[in-house]
Design a protein that fits this description.
disordered N terminus, Rossmann fold, Cation_Transport_ATPase_IB, alpha+beta, elongated, 7-stranded mixed sheet, about 800 residues, ATP-binding, Cadmium-translocating P-type ATPase, cell membrane, Calcium-transporting ATPase, cytoplasmic transduction domain A, 26 helices
Length: about 800
């Protein structure tokens, strides 16, 4: 990397020296002409021409050795021609043009690749390791898993690990492209490459430097741009026929007119600088812009292929779904409440590393449930956890025998089958008291992202998953996929990708080790690399360093725009050169004027190619900090308010069995949660969030349907309240049970759909991560600001 930087610095000096020498020769000749010394002026201009001619010959030789047609040959012939026919001023102007073109090209590439170079320069080279009370600085290669490192303020986290002592405030913008501070609590994972934006903290290393996240990204960045993009190779092919065409026009002009000056003028304006500069500058600009969005593209070829892809194939787990199961419902026996069941299960699961146990524990903490420390904990692989909690024997997991036959248990099993959820049974002192239903949820950004990808040019979307057919088909229906293939082995995925690749340019997206062969088989493999799946990242052409699928849509839009600008710049530049060649062949454009015109074309083409660095007009405008903060706040409230939905289902289930006093109590609990939590949340959205979203979404009509849904939720809640007021303390009359059930089911359906629509349409607009202001150590801050929900 350092050698490359030194080479870049040496190239800058050569470019600067060449520009200074040629411009000096031109200026000295002009001064001599003004002083009435034409011979001195001619000598100065000829000297400037020779200064440019020498390196130009070298560039032609290098190009020929690389098997290219020598596209710099026209510049050499132009310089030689001006010397032969005595057009020394034109030669000096061409020399300045050549030097300026090289300088502009270098400057454009340096600007376009600034973000990629910054990624390389950001890489740490040492770490501070703590052994006992001794702190020593060691080379990064000496760090081993298990080492305790100290990361000081402003330092880069050197390897992947976990926070060891105090919470860490981190700037993850290098990996994610988002400039939000994120706090990681003790025990949470931290990826290498992020910057410590707070006080010093301890880091327990979990990987060597070479196996860490940032090292993999650096390797990809070093390869970025090394491969020639197809659009750049296309420019080389254009130049291959442009060269003989230019020579033919110059020869014809000389033959018809008998003037060698006309031939030289044709060669001067035929120099294919626009063609040579436009494509690489635009492609490198696209690579740079993609890196800002947390998308590392391995090569210019991958970026260009991404821009013309038409088939998208996706894995399910970790790609379209979150890859982390969550509790969607808690079913309870008649003598138990859902929160009591969840609290017991979470208490027993506290010491378990299993992914389902972590999901149960996270759900209990979100609801603020009090937990007890378990003792005598035993975990049986594939079966679950048994422990003693507050003196009672608790088991959480699979049932050793048949499932309970009680009505509530059959209802829970039916919902699990219909919703494609896993069931974790909870037993206390040998009695089954409840069931926890868990599911890997769809990513919030998945529907919006797939709509954007269709708009960007994908004609066919295919799901490849090793999962069962039922949940796969459900996801395919929700997302509007063209085909769903379930039960796929890694070999099946490779075969499917190869078959699609035979028909069209194909992109494959995955995140696991088992996806690596399919990623390698695709035209463009895209890895969800935020979680450090090194095998898939190494096999992929594109790596998303932030755990958001919508950045793939960003990369697609960037790729299409970069390719469009590259082709546009090259075509316009060539067209202008051809027009200028016609005028020169007709004797209407002398060599000196042609050189000035060609210089203007070069500058215009480079500036146009650099447009690929800037956002396109169709990109979503950035949100204000206030709007983004509101989105994060209401999104966090959704996470907490989701606890109300099981109350509605539980009340309906109890009421369906019979209008008992227990059923009426469940309905009252649901109504209280609606009045004291849901409705204040919806009113706050109406008065705070929706007005803030009007500008970025193009007006208040964008949220009008959501406002109408709020009104319906309030109407049904009021209807439920009327039923409870009429019933008083007596059980519900039989003639009202049906309407109360319809109201409960209606509220459940509307709230679930409403939450999903807001999360998909609005909350995905906000940058990922949690701001420092929302992570202060108070767990209740994730609850609604108007009331801390406790059922």
């Amino acid at each position: 990397m350092e050698a490359a930087m030194r080479f870049g610095g040496g190239r800058t000096l050569v470019e600067g020296g060449l520009l200074l020498a040629t411009f000096g020769g031109l200026l000295a000749g002009l001064v001599a002409t003004a002083a009435g010394r034409p011979a001195v002026a001619a000598a100065c201009w000829a000297a400037g021409t020779v200064v440019a001619l020498v390196p130009s010959v070298g560039w032609v030789v290098v190009a020929l050795r690389r098997g290219r047609a020598g596209v710099d040959l026209l510049a050499v012939l132009s310089l030689v021609g001006t010397l032969v026919v005595g057009e020394y001023l034109a030669g000096a102007l061409i020399a300045v043009m050549v030097a300026t073109g090289r300088t502009l090209e270098g400057a454009a590439e340096r600007r376009a690749s600034k973000d990629l170079r910054a990624l390389l320069e950001h890489a740490p080279r040492s770490a501070r390791r703590r052994v006992g009370d001794v702190l020593e600085t060691v080379a990064l290669d000496a760090v081993r898993p298990g080492d305790l490192l100290v990361v000081g303020p402003g330092e880069v986290v050197p390897v992947d690990g976990r926070v060891a002592d105090v919470a860490a405030a981190l700037d993850e913008s290098v990996l994610t492209g988002e400039s939000r501070l994120v706090e990681r609590a003790v025990g949470e994972a931290v990826r290498s490459g992020v910057v410590n934006a707070g006080a010093a903290f301890g880091l327990r290393a979990e990987a060597t430097a070479d196996d860490s996240t940032y090292a993999g990204i650096v390797r990809l960045a070093q390869e970025a741009g090394a491969d020639t993009a197809p659009v750049v190779r296309l420019a080389d092919r254009y130049a291959a026929w442009f060269l003989p065409l230019s020579l033919a026009v110059a020869g014809a002009a000389w033959l018809v007119s008998g003037s060698a000056v006309r031939a030289v003028a044709v060669l001067v304006v035929a120099t294919p600088c626009p063609l040579l500069l436009a494509a690489p500058v635009a492609i490198v600009s696209g690579l740079s812009r993609a890196s800002r969005r947390g998308v590392v593209v391995r090569s210019g070829g991958a970026l260009e292929n991404l821009g013309r892809a038409r088939t998208l194939m996706l894995d399910k787990t970790g790609t379209l779904t979150a890859g982390r199961p969550v509790v969607v419902e808690v079913a309870a026996a008649p003598a138990w409440r859902p929160d009591d069941v969840l609290a017991v299960a979470a208490s027993a699961d506290q010491l378990s590393p299993h992914v389902l146990a972590r999901a149960v524990l996270a759900a209990a903490r979100r609801r603020g449930l009090p937990l007890s420390m378990p003792v005598d904990v035993t975990e049986r692989p594939g079966r679950g956890v048994s422990a003693h909690v507050d003196g009672r024997a608790v088991e959480v997991g699979k049932r050793p025998g048949p499932a309970p036959e009680e009505g509530w248990a059959r209802t829970a099993l039916g919902r699990a089958v219909l919703d494609g959820t896993a069931v974790s049974w909870v037993t206390v002192d040998g009695q089954v008291v409840g069931a926890v239903l868990l599911r890997d949820p769809l990513r919030r950004d998945a529907p919006r992202t797939l709509r954007r990808l269709r708009a960007a040019g994908f004609r066919r979307l295919v799901l490849l998953t090793g999962d069962r057919a039922e949940p796969a088909r459900e996801i395919g229906t929700v997302l509007g996929l063209d085909e769903v293939r379930a039960g796929q082995s890694p070999a099946d995925k490779v075969a499917a990708v190869r078959a699609e690749r035979e028909r069209d340019v194909t992109v494959m997206v995955g995140d696991g080790v088992n996806d690596a062969p399919a990623l390698a088989a695709a035209t463009v493999g895209v890895a969800m690399g935020a979680r450090g799946a090194s095998a898939s990242s190494e096999a992929a052409d594109v790596v998303l360093t932030v755990d958001r699928l919508d950045h793939l849509a960003d990369a697609m839009e960037i790729a299409r725009r970069a390719r469009r600008i590259a082709v546009q710049s090259a075509a316009v530049g060539m067209g202008l050169s051809l027009v200028a060649m016609a005028f020169a062949a007709a004797g209407l454009l002398p060599p000196a004027a042609g050189a000035l015109l060609q210089e203007g074309i070069d500058v215009a083409v480079i500036l146009n190619a650099l447009r690929a660095l800037r956002p396109g007009r169709d990109e979503t405008p950035p949100l204000t900090p206030r709007t983004e903060e509101l989105l994060h706040r209401f999104s966090a409230e959704h996470d907490t308010l989701s606890a109300v939905l099981p109350l509605l289902r539980d009340a309906a289930s109890r009421l369906a069995i019979g209008p008992s006093g227990d059923a009426l109590d469940a309905v009252r609990r649901a109504h209280t949660a609606l009045v004291e939590d849901i409705l204040p949340h919806e009113r706050a959205e109406e008065t705070e969030l929706y007005p803030a979203l009007a500008a970025p979404l193009g007006g208040p009509e964008a949220t009008a349907t959501m406002s109408r849904t709020h009104a319906e939720i309030e109407r049904l809640t009021a209807r439920l309240g009327v039923h409870l007021a009429l019933a008083g303390d007596a059980p519900l009359p039989e003639d009202r049970v049906e309407d109360v059930l319809a109201t409960l089911y209606g509220l459940d359906t509307i709230l679930r759909l409403h939450f999903a629509q807001e999360e998909e349409s609005y909350f995905t607009l906000a940058a990922p991560g949690t701001s420092r202001s929302t992570r202060t150590g108070d767990a209740d801050l994730r609850r609604p600001a108007h009331r801390r929900y406790r059922p």
